[in-house]
Amino acid sequence: MQGLHLTADLSGCRDPAGLMRDGAALAALCERLASEVGLTVVGRQFHAFAPQGTAGVTGVLLLAESHLAVHTWPELSAVTLDVFVCNFGSNNSDKARQLVDALVQRFEPRHVQHQQLARGHRA
After folding, report:
1. 13, 30, 66, 67: which is the annotated catalytic residue?
2. In the annotation, is 66 catalytic?
3. What percent of the chain has a predicted confidence (pLDDT) above 90?
4. Sorting pLDDT into bands at 50, 70 and 90, what band is 53?
5. For burial by CB atoms within 10 Å, which of 13, 52, 76, 108 has the most?
6. Of the residues 13, 30, 67, 86, which is catalytic?
């Protein structure tokens, strides 16, 4: 099994749609974007911290190809993204990159720190 693990640490987020505080909207967006890039959502769990509407959100999409995790800190204007895809049967790396890029754009950060890690065994 081989895979690609991408992370993005966002700071100075403008967050024009208010996603950092709205768990339902963030969950719906993540699911829609994952599907649009061709990844298969098999489950989701998102939690908006109290008090809702002012505190952050943490959530995960379970993907047939692996996962997406997102954590928001509106009080810090910060978001972390984590996407891991397995490349078993087909290469999903471009889909993972497209998903991260689409999410980054929605938060309109001033600064983004990207990292990537090739994972798994190579034959």
Report:
1. 66
2. yes
3. 88
4. confident
5. 13
6. 86
